[in-house]
Design goal:
The protein is α/β, with parallel strands linked by helices. Helices cover 30% and strands 22% of the residues. Bound molecules: zinc ion.
């Protein structure tokens, strides 16, 4: 059955003028054209709205975000209401042995530190562990710290930090690898919870027009949950999975990753490897070429340069795509060097990409395009928000100006893809495009390095063609032309023309021609 989309603007992300109408037949785009439209059985009246290709998110965490949405969820909660929200959740779930959830933001607490005694006031009777929305720290109550055996005598793990009171006792915030000290005593997340989380997350993402993504943290458990969801007909979007690289192991884990990459389903392909090279600047755990101004030394590198140089060429040789988390200039330098150590043919076919690209040394900007490493931008962070002003800039000093150099990367030949890092930040692509193009999140704040702003078309390209390329799906998606899959989004306003991108809202999403 053919459906005509007409009476609005159409942005195809293909070369040439934009068409007046588009026809979908079955699961595919059957044609686009100018002037009087053909007769079709069905018509979809855009009524002045805008039709776009389905958007793709190049770095997102649906199982984490979805499981959190189904638990004690603070993501959309104002900081002043955190405690009453947690108390209400605990009261509504009296039989849960643990209060688990997340979504609080570091910058909502003085110095980024959330205290156990505060959480004790609303969860005094049971252990509680709430992950920060940044995904790098967690907030535990006293009961949880006690169960985990964390006290003044507990040393910091090599890959994390226990925030402490002056006498050394734990304060309640655990950074990076220190979260695992509590997680090892929490009840494991079941396959059913993970599957339900993926389905909840998918509904949220489809509501933002996202019809495909790359999951930036796939474990054997989430892989099984994706495949189970797909086999039950619950997976509608198309996902590429980046399998988590175990920091405690070296290249001996590659055969297992290769084996796992063959365990896929029609809509889920785990063909990437997530290499989390370092932490984040705002807590001094990103790996830096020069020390922080704030006493954290050079930060933390989770995967050493030696392991990267040995492993990345082999990962690419095995046909798997490196997906780096690179925040500090040292982490990004080492990731680029590791790709450069590989065979250029393997680089071209696997399409390595570095997500976050926060502090990029000037000498490394031109290497992205030259080496064939894509820049995977989380543009929402490229502004003078509370995290940047209060936590990051004081730690970086003069190097703060080298953050998020999206314009320079594109000008020097890098491919750019865009991703939200949801549930760290919102998945709304238009909120991200707004910051990418203005370098500000708020009209009253000064733009952050405004010369690095993208054009509207470049930002939309990142969420369509750019991310489709990252996902090896550019033949079937990312733009609208005859023969491509009818993954479509209808939005209230044309994002290339609207006065304020933050006003753009999704009204309809189609996957393979079907409204979802
Ligand atoms: Zn992430």
């Amino acid at each position: 059955m053919a459906t005509l989309f007409h009476n609005g603007s159409i942005v195809t992300m293909e070369p040439g003028p934009e068409p007046d109408w588009l026809v979908v037949d079955g699961a595919s785009v059957a044609g686009v054209g100018f002037g009087p439209p053909p007769n079709t059985e069905e018509r979809f009246d855009l009524d002045g709205r805008c039709l776009l290709p389905g958007l793709q998110d190049a770095h997102v965490h649906p199982p984490i975000g979805g499981v959190a949405m189904n638990r004690c969820d603070l993501h959309e909660v104002q900081p002043a209401a955190y405690l009453e929200t947690i108390a209400a959740y605990a009261a509504a779930n009296p039989d849960l042995p643990w209060i688990l959830g997340g979504g609080w933001a570091m910058h909502d607490f003085a110095g980024g530190i959330a205290r156990a005694d505060l959480l004790d006031t609303v969860v005094p009777d049971r252990p509680a562990l709430l992950h920060g929305s940044e995904g790098h720290g967690a907030w535990a109550n006293s009961h949880a710290l006690r169960l985990a055996g964390i006290d003044a005598s507990t040393p910091d793990p090599i890959d994390g930090r226990i925030e402490r009171l002056p006498g050394g006792a734990p304060i309640g915030t655990l950074q990076e690898g220190a979260v695992a000290l509590v997680e090892r005593v929490t009840p494991p997340t079941t396959l059913a919870e993970l599957r339900a989380g993926i389905v909840t997350a998918q509904q949220y993402l489809l509501g933002h027009g996202i019809t495909g993504w790359q999951d930036a943290w796939v474990t054997p458990q989430t892989q099984a949950a994706y495949i189970e969801a797909d086999s039950r007909g619950e997976l509608i979007a198309t996902a590429v999975g980046a399998m988590w690289w175990d920091r405690g192991l070296g290249i001996e884990q590659i055969p297992e990753l290769v084996g796992r990459s063959r365990d896929s389903s029609p809509r889920f392909r785990p063909t990437a490897v997530k290499l989390m090279v370092d932490g984040v600047c705002e807590n001094g755990t990103a790996s830096m070429l020069e020390p922080y101004e704030s006493g954290e030394g050079f930060g933390i590198q989770f995967i050493t340069r030696e392991v990267l140089l040995e492993a990345v060429p082999r990962i690419m040789e095995a046909g798997l795509q490196p997906h780096f988390h690179g925040i500090g200039d040292k982490a990004i330098r080492d990731a680029l060097d590791a790709v450069a150590a590989g065979d250029p043919i393997d680089v071209a076919r696997t399409r390595p990409h570095i997500a976050h690209i926060q502090v990029v040394d000037e000498a490394d900007v031109e290497r992205f395009g030259r080496l064939g490493v894509a820049a995977n931008a989380q543009a929402l962070w490229a502004c003078n928000d509370g995290c940047m002003v209060d936590l990051t800039k004081p730690r970086l000093g003069a190097r703060a100006r080298q953050q998020y150099p999206f314009r320079s990367l594109i000008d020097e030949g890098a491919r750019l893809a865009c991703g939200s890092d949801w549930s760290v930040s919102t998945a709304d692509p238009f909120a991200q495009m707004a910051v990418a193009t203005t370098r500000t999140h708020d009209d009253s704040a000064d733009p952050f390095e405004p010369q690095q702003a993208l054009t509207r078309r470049e930002a939309l390209h990142g969420f369509t063609v750019g991310s489709a390329w990252i996902n090896h799906r550019e033949d079937e998606s990312g733009s609208l032309r005859s023969g491509k899959r009818a993954d479509l989004v209808v939005v209230t306003d044309n994002p290339l023309a609207v006065a304020d991108l933050r006003d753009v809202a999704v009204t309809d999403t189609f996957v393979g021609g079907v409204a979802v």
